[in-house]
């Protein structure tokens, strides 16, 4: 509050002084600082010298393209008093050997009132570097946020550059700006106003300059937590014999770019001989994750409820199956299509077992 009042007071004093000294000056003049360059975009060639002078009623400061901050750039700022009665503040910016990466907006503002500013956009064209950003060998990751535009930030060093947006994966497309959903802006890049699932994948901005193709790649990512479907594959009813292998396949289908994690809960979970194997399969429209729980030798202590839990961000889902383990090899099941023989018993109600073991027994042993 005190700081704010101080600034207001200074501003008032400053304007009162200016009034006294230079009465001829129109009232609204220098309400924002003035630049000595034309207001439209300026195009320079690489290695040329850029000079801009800013003039205003109060002390000035600059906001420059980020490539000029912190680097050992050949930028020089000279502040002075100017005007007939030296009543104004001037600041001259000189950038010798301007480079493509210096392309951007150059803003001059009042030091104590940074919203009062004037800006000019400067392109520094380089026949070997069409894009302001460096071309890297690994794609930049862009995040798609729901309800927000997606910007491929491939801004260019020359406003006349012809750039195309190419979808490279999962399928190949050249996307033409339509000025409705796909907008090209040489100062920002390609803007997708309402990005759909189509915009998830690998994209690149491409341009051709003096016979050479240049491109910048992007990998777009949409964090979604959408589980479409989930099931356990274990035949029903879930009955098995002691000593046999039990395998349960927990399968989840989810939207592209989902990430899921599995958690199993079941009796005798502490036994380290149990094996869990997980894998992800990609399809054009969705992802399939599965987790296989394998118990090499069933024991009666393994009977009970097997629960597969799946987490995707805040979303949690689970499926369960109840497994019975018969500890005696002699069991007679009521199934009509069953085969039972001395020593062990197999019936049609245990299709997974008969499939996996290919069980058969001599007719003479039938009970
Ligand atoms: C700019 O100057 C440097 C050093 O003199 C030179 O290597 C480079 O090729 C020049 N760039 C352009 C675009 O002329
Ligand atoms: C274009 O390429 C040719 C040969 O590679 C070169 O001689 C010429 O200077 C280049 N033009 C520009 C504008 O860089
Ligand atoms: C797994 O079970 C689901 C439904 O329970 C079924 O639709 C699917 O075909 C089964 N998959 C396999 C490989 O058995
Ligand atoms: C598990 O289920 C998935 C989907 O149903 C299937 O693609 C995969 O092959 C199954 N894995 C095994 C080992 O049965
Ligand atoms: C763990 O499982 C193996 C075979 O599946 C079994 O032989 C062993 O007794 C079990 N150990 C415990 C502590 O349950
Ligand atoms: C097992 O699944 C069934 C049906 O999906 C559900 O009704 C039941 O509450 C679940 N049991 C447990 C212990 O989670």
Automatic annotation (TrEMBL):
The keyword Signal applies. The keyword Transit peptide does not apply. Coiled coil: none annotated. Keywords: Signal. Residues 1-18 form the signal peptide. Residues 130-217, 242-324 form the Ig-like domain. Forms a complex composed of PDGFRL, TNK2 and GRB2. This is Platelet-derived growth factor receptor-like protein. The lineage of its organism: Eukaryota, Metazoa, Chordata, Craniata, Vertebrata.
């Amino acid at each position: 509050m005190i700081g704010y009042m101080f600034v207001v007071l200074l501003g008032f004093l400053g304007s009162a002084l200016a009034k006294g000294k230079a009465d001829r000056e129109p009232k609204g003049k220098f309400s924002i600082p003035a630049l000595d360059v034309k207001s439209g975009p300026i195009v320079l060639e690489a290695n040329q010298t850029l000079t801009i002078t800013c003039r205003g009623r109060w002390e000035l400061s600059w906001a420059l393209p980020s490539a000029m901050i912190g680097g050992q750039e050949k930028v020089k700022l000279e502040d002075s008093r100017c005007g007939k009665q030296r009543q104004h503040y001037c600041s001259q910016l000189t950038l010798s050997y301007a480079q493509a990466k210096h392309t951007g907006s150059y803003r001059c503002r009042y030091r104590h009132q940074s919203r009062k500013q004037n800006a000019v956009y400067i392109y520094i064209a380089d026949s070997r570097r069409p894009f302001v950003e460096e071309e890297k060998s690994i794609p930049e990751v862009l995040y798609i946020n729901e309800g927000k535009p997606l910007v491929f930030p491939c801004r260019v060093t020359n406003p006349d550059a012809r750039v195309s947006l190419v979808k490279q994966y999962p399928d190949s497309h050249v996307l033409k700006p339509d000025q409705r959903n796909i907008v090209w802006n040489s100062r920002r890049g390609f803007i997708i106003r309402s990005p759909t699932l189509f915009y998830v994948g690998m994209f690149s901005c491409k341009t051709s300059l003096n016979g050479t193709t240049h491109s910048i790649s992007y990998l777009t990512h949409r964090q979604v937590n959408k589980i479409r479907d989930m099931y356990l594959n274990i035949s029903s009813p879930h009955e098995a014999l002691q000593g046999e292998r039990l395998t349960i396949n927990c399968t989840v289908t989810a939207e592209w770019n989902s990430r899921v994690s599995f958690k199993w809960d079941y009796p005798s979970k502490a036994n380290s001989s149990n094996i869990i194997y997980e894998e992800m399969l990609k399809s054009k429209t969705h992802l399939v994750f599965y987790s296989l729980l394998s118990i090499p030798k069933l024991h009666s202590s393994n009977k009970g409820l097997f629960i597969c839990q799946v987490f995707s961000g805040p979303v949690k889902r689970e499926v369960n199956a109840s497994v019975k383990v018969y500890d005696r090899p002699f069991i007679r099941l009521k199934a009509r299509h069953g085969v039972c023989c001395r020593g062990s018993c197999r019936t049609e109600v245990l299709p997974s077992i008969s499939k996996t073991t290919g069980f058969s027994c001599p007719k003479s042993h039938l009970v």
